[in-house]
Amino acid sequence: MVEYNGMIYALGGKASYSESTPYGPSLWGALGTTVLLRSADGISWEEVPSYSRFEKGYGSSIIGRRAMAVYMDKLYIGLEEGPNLMERNLPILLSLDTTTLSREDIWNEAILPSYDTNLPISISELAVYDGKLWIGIQGTQGFGFYTVDGTSFSNIAFPDKLSDLEGTEFDYATGNDLRENNSFVMKMYEYKNKLYISTPNFVSGFSLFCYSAEDGFELLTGDAFGSPSMAYAWNMEEFQGHLFVGTGNN
Question: pLDDT tens digit string along 79-89?
């Protein structure tokens, strides 16, 4: 959920268990169609006039819908289109730049470009940091990052090996590849002028990084601070000068 132009927006799905495909019952049918709600008082809610992709069926349905952020007076939504049995799923970035909502509203759509071999599959998180919109992704080789500065996309290079990254060294049973078993960006949060980033890991426990333009990426933990059963660092919030991280046990 995010606040945008004096209203709170919530993104979710309408359950639909009857969806079928040419290959039989859909694995994703329970996810249903995407719905965007808004409220001025937190009590009464209305549905935002739908974007056309929200309502399409098999082959063009939205199966991932986790990320929202406000950047440069626009509401951004990160989506994943799929499933597609022939090709990889597509990450879609939508922006809505009007406050008078009607069926004629313009949704601006962008498909994330591919810059390297870690092809983007899903937009898992959005955050605003250092004047840019940061886009956390799930890629074909693990997590990754894009930024939007105005309307131009860039990708953020991330070290492939622990030896190339500042911070505490960890002994990974699966090797020294930072992306291995860290499939997507779960949460990004700005704290004391740095961007803190978590990725889930079901083998070693979640990883937590921080980033600044001056210092680059720093690894804070690669094993959930010694608790490898803690696969998730799902949420973050600053309180009384400290950064709190909400975790989940796998």
Answer: 776 554 445 55
